[in-house]
TrEMBL record:
The keyword Cell membrane applies. It is a multi-pass membrane protein. This is L-methionine/branched-chain amino acid transporter. The keyword Protein biosynthesis does not apply. It is found in: Cell membrane. InterPro entries: AA/rel_permease1 (IPR002293), APC_superfamily (IPR050367). Gene3D superfamilies: Amino acid/polyamine transporter I. Keywords: Cell membrane, Membrane, Transmembrane, Transmembrane helix. GO terms for molecular function: transmembrane transporter activity. It comes from Limnobaculum parvum. GO terms for cellular component: plasma membrane. The chain crosses the membrane at residues 43-66, 87-107, 119-137, 149-166, 186-208, 220-246, 266-286, 319-338, 344-364, 376-407.
């Protein structure tokens, strides 16, 4: 099942995933990591990539052998049946009321920093962001990918400019001795930094739109992850070199403050626009992924329904419109009730780790060989993360239990992939 246009190539896939992983984190997390672990954060990024690697390998294998717009829900369906798949799909969609309003708040914050917008202006920026995603969604996934490749290039160019102007070289970076590192700050930093690699599950929804998913999807996923990790490490090195962290400085203004220090006050708006575009890229891939999930779930049950129809460019425009309307309503509600940004992020993070766990368990049943071993390791890592998060996963657990009880158990023939 797929009426979606298959046009994504390797470079487009790398651009989509790298911008999804960078998103809002590239401007905030390096400073947070440096604040927690100081120069030890230079070691924390390679350690984190090693820890995430098994999860990425499992996702790459699942997307390679079972490409489908349903993404995580499709993997779970093959492993545990249609009811668990519907629960997983709705669990992923339950991120919309908390995760997307948080991302919109962060994105609009860059406009406030650059142009001093007031409350009403920030709401207009959020509305304009959703409208831009809708306009981009009128075209196929390839158009989104091309835009995000450009955004990825701008982020990398900004980091390269900081290193060049700041005269930072690999030889000037002082790595702390491994024997001097303390375990507690490193673990605390890793717990924060893990959220930079939330986005693999969203990327899985686009596997069916690659021209050659078996070859290019796993390559794009792994290369995109390494590109994002390299950018994060480079930003951390710059933050440490300029001591742009800690104290009363907000983490999100760390990199813009370095840009101003190196290039002058007039360069602030450039850094803020790049920051906004990074947020936009992350929002775009998530809303596009949500739309593909809604489309695939509806298509399986009611292929003639309005939400299951594709546009002329063979994109799920109707499903995207529905997702964006829900996002708009959630953002207005969050603004009306003055919900704090950190509260929204906490609830969203628990959902993501829970979905990662379900995908890893699916990989344990569906995959073979080394990919299956990676799924078992990924499962253990996800359980460890849930234990570290603790009570903050309550939203995910409650949503999962409610969906399991409420959603009807329809008799449905599972789609079995060809050998």
């Amino acid at each position: 099942m797929s009426g979606l246009k298959q046009e994504l190539g390797l470079v487009q896939g790398v651009g989509l995933l790298s911008t999804s992983l960078l998103g809002t984190g590239v401007f905030a997390v390096p400073a947070l990591a440096a604040q927690i672990a100081d120069s030890g954060s230079l070691w924390a990024w390679p350690v984190l990539i090693i820890l995430v690697f098994p999860i990425a390998i499992a996702f790459a294998a699942l997307g390679r052998y079972f490409p489908n717009a349903g993404g995580a829900a499709h993997f779970v369906s093959l492993a545990f049946g249609p009811h668990m798949a519907r629960v997983t799909g709705w669990l992923f969609l339950s991120v919309i009321p908390v995760g997307l309003p948080a991302a919109l708040q962060i994105a609009s914050g860059f406009w406030q920093a650059a142009f001093g917008l007031e409350h009403s202006g920030l709401l207009l920026v959020q509305l304009g962001t959703l409208l831009a995603i809708l306009l981009l969604g009128m075209r196929s996934a390839g158009s989104s990918a091309n835009v995000q490749v450009i955004i990825a290039g701008l982020i990398v160019a900004m980091v390269v400019a900081i290193w060049w102007k700041g005269e930072i070289t690999p030889g000037s970076i002082q790595w702390p001795a491994l024997s001097s590192l303390s375990a507690s700050p490193m673990f605390s930093a890793l717990a924060v930094m893990f959220w930079c690699f939330v986005g693999l599950e969203a990327f899985a929804h686009l596997a069916a739109e690659f021209r050659n998913p078996e070859r290019d999807f796993p390559r794009a996923l792994l290369i995109g992850m390494l590109v994002a990790g390299g950018v994060y490490w480079s930003c951390t090195a710059a933050v440490l070199a300029f001591h742009s962290y800690g104290g009363e400085m907000a983490a999100s203004v760390s990199l813009p403050s370095i840009v101003v220090q190196l290039f002058g006050q007039h360069a602030l708006w450039v850094a803020c626009i790049i920051g906004y575009l990074a947020c936009f890229a992350s929002l775009n891939i998530y809303t596009q992924s949500f739309a593909r999930l809604v489309w695939s779930q509806t298509y399986e049950q009611k292929p003639k329904a309005w939400v299951a129809q594709l546009s002329r460019s063979r994109s799920p425009l109707n499903a995207l419109s529905l997702v964006l309307l829900c996002c708009l309503a959630s953002s207005l509600a969050a603004d009306y009730f003055s919900l704090a940004l950190d509260e929204l992020i906490v609830y969203a993070n628990g959902i993501f780790v829970f979905i990662y766990l379900l995908c890893m368990l699916s990989g344990c049943r569906l995959l073979k060989g080394s990919a299956r071993v990676m799924s078992f390791i990924g499962t253990a890592l996800c359980v460890l993360l849930l234990m570290m998060i603790g009570w903050k996963t309550l939203y995910a657990v409650v949503m999962f239990a409610l969906l399991w009880l409420i959603l009807p158990r329809r008799k449905h023939a599972s789609e079995v992939p060809a050998e």
